[in-house]
Amino acid sequence: MLNTAADDIEIRPYTGGFVAMTGDGTAGHPDWPHLGVALVQPRARGRISLVSADPAVPPLIEHRYDSEPEDVAALCRGSELARELASAAACVGPPEWATSQHRPD
Questions:
Q1: In the prediction, which pLDDT does 6 show?
Q2: Which class for 74: exposed (0-12), middle (13-18), buried (19 or more C-beta within 10 A)?
């Protein structure tokens, strides 16, 4: 995991691809390891509102992930850094699932 102090960006390597981590298997398609980019301390703030006094009614959730331009710019910089890191990596062939901590086999 790589943290950058300037933007509080976290770059996480995942040994399994998204499809394998969500439990759908690979559905016959290759599912490669990837990098995830996240903000450690985003400026944006979401909101949760109760829409009913009935506890069975779900609340209204407004994530507001991209509501702060500074967050969007920082994520773009993080994505560029992740792309740079990935392009510098040596090609090691097909994904090796035996080391994946995310795959539920």
A1: 57
A2: buried
Tell me the whole-structure pTM to 2 decimals. Answer: 0.63
Partners of 60 in beta bridges: 49
Dihedral-angle region of residue 8 (phi above 0 means left; psi in -120 to 50 means alpha; beta otherwise): left
Q: Give SS3 for 42.
A: coil
Token match 């331009």: residue? 69
Q: Determine which helix (DSSP H) or strand (DSSP E) holds 69, and give its type and residue range.
A: helix 69-88
- Report the candidate in 50, 21, 46 with the shortest Cα–Cα distance to residue 34: 21
- pLDDT digit string, tens, across residues 64-100: 988 999 999 999 999 999 998 888 766 655 555 545 5
Domain locations in the chain? 2-74
**1 DSSP 8-state letter:** -
